[in-house]
Design brief:
The chain is α/β, with parallel strands linked by helices. The protein contains 3 helices and 6 strands; from the N terminus they run E-H-E-E-H-E-E-H-E. It has helices at about 10-20, 55-65, 105-110; strands at about 5, 25-30, 40-45, 70-80, 85-100, 115-120.
């Protein structure tokens, strides 16, 4: 069986890692010269969205053996509207660096991968 993954972003790299866990080596094609979004930024993963999973990081490690390292835990969110300000506190999730830096989520996934990525290659799903 031959499998091609178009795009070496978070989804493509996670898909490739899961295929590797099952003994399948995909071909990964990325049209840019490296993985990750062009501009570095911080993204939050909220634990509110994934109930009944209490801690996504421990779940991803237990279930998929993904040792992901966040920048920091997310403990407080402050929301401002024109008429009021409110906040929530607690174990709300995690903050991750996104982009092409070494500690980014994309780089962490790439470093776990055994499959080579074909960079600077535009792939069309019809090929």
């Amino acid at each position: 069986m031959r499998i091609a993954i178009i795009g070496a972003g978070v989804s493509g790299l996670a898909c490739a890692l899961e295929l590797e866990r099952h003994g399948i080596t995909p071909a990964i094609f990325e049209q840019r010269n490296r993985s990750g979004e062009v501009f570095a930024h911080v993204a939050g993963i909220l634990q509110l969205m994934n109930r009944p999973i209490k801690d996504q990081l421990s779940y991803l490690y237990r279930r998929l053996k993904l040792p992901l390292r966040p920048l920091a835990p997310l403990k407080r969110i402050i929301m401002h509207t024109p008429n009021t300000t409110g906040s929530i506190t607690g174990r709300l999730g995690y903050l991750f660096l996104r982009g092409q830096d070494e500690g980014s989520l994309e780089s962490q996934l790439f470093n776990l991968l055994r499959t080579p990525v074909f960079y600077n290659h535009y792939a069309d799903w019809r090929e």
